[in-house]
């Protein structure tokens, strides 16, 4: 699993706007293929946990075999908290339980190279099923 070596603050603020409003704001960085020939692009806003990134990476690596190379273009550096079950309101913020990556529409999350187009598309499709966001497979033009 991916997580930062250290963070400046243990608990961060939650995003103030509603996620539906964030969907209209497209990403400007990381929207083009940089390393591989094929990529997995996010079509909506989502928060992706480090566990979900690892699950997608595993399924891509397994399907692409040894000939393929996989790049992860997102990193979960945002800590998120959760209160224990059946705890009353108030009494402060919950404890940090993991890290997330905030992904906006248009972001290339994974790239793959060294395999045929058919294999790459299937590997990326399978990785997309592990993520809580609508995705699209893109290739170099």
Helix share bin: 10-25%
Low-confidence stretches: none
Q: How far apart are the first and last residues' alpha carbons, in Å? A: 32 Å
- Under CATH, the topology can be stated as Aldehyde Oxidoreductase, domain 3
Taken together, the total number of domains comes to: 1
CATH homologous superfamily placement: Ribosomal protein L16/L10
Number of distinct helices: 3
**Chain oligomer state:** single chain
CATH class label = Alpha Beta
List keywords for this structure.
single chain, 141 residues, alpha+beta, Aldehyde Oxidoreductase, domain 3, 3-stranded antiparallel β-sheet, 3 helices, 23% helix
How would you describe what is shown here?
The chain has 3 helices and 7 strands. The protein is an alpha+beta fold and 141 residues long. It has a single domain, classed as Ribosomal protein L16/L10 (Aldehyde Oxidoreductase, domain 3), CATH 3.90.1170.10. The strands form 2 sheets. A 4-stranded antiparallel sheet has the order 3-6-1-7, covered by helices on one side. It has a 3-stranded antiparallel sheet with strand order 2-5-4.
Summarize the structure.
This protein has 141 residues and is an alpha+beta fold. Helix content is 23%, strand content 27%.
Layout: helices, strands, pairs:
Layout: H1 19-22, E1 38-42, E2 46-49, H2 50-64, E3 69-72, E4 78-82, E5 95-103, E6 108-113, H3 117-129, E7 135-139
Antiparallel strand pairs: 1-6, 1-7, 2-5, 3-6, 4-5
Helix pairs in contact: 2-3
């Amino acid at each position: 699993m991916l997580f930062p070596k250290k963070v400046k603050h243990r608990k961060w603020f939650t995003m103030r706007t509603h996620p539906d409003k964030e969907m209209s704001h497209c990403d400007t960085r990381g929207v083009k293929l940089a390393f591989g020939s094929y990529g997995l692009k996010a079509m909506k806003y989502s928060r992706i946990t480090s566990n979900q990134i690892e699950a997608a990476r595993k399924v891509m690596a397994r399907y692409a075999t040894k000939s393929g190379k996989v790049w992860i273009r997102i990193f979960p550096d945002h800590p998120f908290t959760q209160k224990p079950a059946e705890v009353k309101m108030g009494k402060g913020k919950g404890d940090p339980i993991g890290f997330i990556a905030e992904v906006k529409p248009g972001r290339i999350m994974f790239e793959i190279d060294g395999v045929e187009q058919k294999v790459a598309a299937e590997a990326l499709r399978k990785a997309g099923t592990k993520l809580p966001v609508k995705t699209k497979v893109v290739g170099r033009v």
